[in-house]
Amino acid sequence: MKWIESLNQLPIVLGIFLVIVGFIMYRFPPKNINFFIGYRTPRSMMSQQHWDFSQKYAASEMMRSGIALLPISLLGLITEVPDFAMNIIIIVFILVPILRTEIALRKKFPSIKQ
Prior knowledge:
By secondary structure, the protein is an all-alpha fold. The protein has four helices and no strands.
């Protein structure tokens, strides 16, 4: 089975991983700000309100990204997709939840500059 040996199966694994980890994070978000688990960026760690919002939002975005990645990853099983294209797809589907969460944090908690 040639598809087992190729990079084309990685998006399926990543999609399933994102859905599972997102679901676990959504159901059991870290309660307190910490440096070990959860969605950790400087903006998400600014306050407990930032933290609570970002944990749920990032988890739902991870699940969305994983679900969206699954049908796209079937292309890798049906046709031969170049490795560089698969790498780009993987990077995009990892970065999109981060970017969307940071944008949502910025909108929900606008910083007041004086």
